[in-house]
């Protein structure tokens, strides 16, 4: 009756997953905040390194390849490419550890 | 000479071994730990590896452990007046 393995609808077979596909507006706001936090960290690193006229490959590559939060389209902020999904997109929350990893670019055209 | 002030704000639990190893190498064992390192390309590369987990500031000189602790200590809300000299 109770406990971790109680026979709830999602667990007793069948395809019943009540996980909302979309993020709520608060989750989206926090997602943007996390993106901006990474942007500001990279900016801090870049500023500190250029003061001493040092260039680092990791920082340069990130600046070159990754868009900042304001440049990203909402589709890329909240969804991720998946070839098995209908319309090739799934919610970014399906990405393991999605609040602690960077996932910014997707295949062009999708 | 400037320094990076690095604070671990998100835990490294469940992250890949390489990421957890970088945190260990930086001396970040627990959340809200603060460490200071000079601004070098090596340290910058390490920070880039864990950029989602830490917050970084550039500071002029490193603080000691007790100074960092004193910063976090909340205002007690009272102060002790000096005792009047007794006759």
From TrEMBL, chain A:
Broad class of the protein's primary localization: mitochondrion
Keyword Ribonucleoprotein: yes
A biological-process GO annotation: mitochondrial translation
Gene transcribed to yield this protein: mrpl31
Species: Lachnellula arida
A molecular-function term among this protein's GO annotations: structural constituent of ribosome
Organism taxonomic ancestry: Eukaryota, Fungi, Dikarya, Ascomycota, Pezizomycotina
Quaternary data: Component of the mitochondrial large ribosomal subunit.
Subcellular location: Mitochondrion
Annotated protein name in UniProt: Large ribosomal subunit protein mL60
A GO term from the CC aspect: mitochondrial large ribosomal subunit
Ribonucleoprotein is among the record's keywords: yes
Alphabetic keyword roster: Mitochondrion, Ribonucleoprotein, Ribosomal protein
From TrEMBL, chain B:
CDD domains per record: Ribosomal_L30 (cd01658)
SUPFAM superfamilies linked to this entry: Ribosomal protein L30p/L7e
Presence of the UniProt keyword Calcium in the record: no
Region spans: Disordered: 65-87
Location relative to the cell: Mitochondrion
Biased composition (Basic and acidic residues): 65-75
GO-annotated cellular components: large ribosomal subunit; mitochondrion
Function, as annotated: Component of the mitochondrial ribosome (mitoribosome), a dedicated translation machinery responsible for the synthesis of mitochondrial genome-encoded proteins, including at least some of the essential transmembrane subunits of the mitochondrial respiratory chain. The mitoribosomes are attached to the mitochondrial inner membrane and translation products are cotranslationally integrated into the membrane.
PANTHER family assigned: LARGE RIBOSOMAL SUBUNIT PROTEIN UL30M, MITOCHONDRIAL RIBOSOMAL PROTEIN L30
Family: Belongs to the universal ribosomal protein uL30 family.
Record protein name field: Large ribosomal subunit protein uL30m
Record organism: Lachnellula arida
Protein's gene: MRPL33
């Amino acid at each position: 009756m109770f406990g971790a393995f109680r026979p709830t609808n999602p667990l007793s077979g069948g395809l019943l997953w009540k996980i909302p596909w979309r993020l709520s507006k608060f989750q989206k706001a926090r997602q943007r905040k996390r993106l901006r936090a990474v942007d500001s960290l990279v900016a801090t690193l870049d500023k500190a390194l250029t003061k001493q006229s040092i260039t680092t490959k990791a920082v340069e590559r990130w600046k070159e390849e990754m868009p900042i939060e304001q440049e990203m389209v909402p589709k890329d902020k909240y969804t991720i490419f998946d070839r098995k999904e209908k319309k090739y997109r799934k919610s970014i929350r399906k990405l393991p550890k999605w609040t602690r990893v960077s996932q910014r670019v997707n295949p062009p055209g999708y | 000479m400037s320094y990076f002030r690095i604070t671990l704000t998100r835990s490294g639990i469940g992250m890949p071994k390489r990421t957890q190893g970088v945190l260990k190498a930086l001396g970040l064992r627990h959340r809200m730990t603060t460490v200071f390192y000079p601004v070098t390309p090596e340290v910058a590369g390490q920070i880039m590896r864990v950029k989602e987990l830490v917050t970084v500031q550039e500071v002029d000189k490193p603080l000691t452990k007790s100074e960092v602790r004193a910063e976090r200590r909340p205002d007690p809300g009272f102060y002790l007046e000096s005792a009047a000299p007794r006759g």
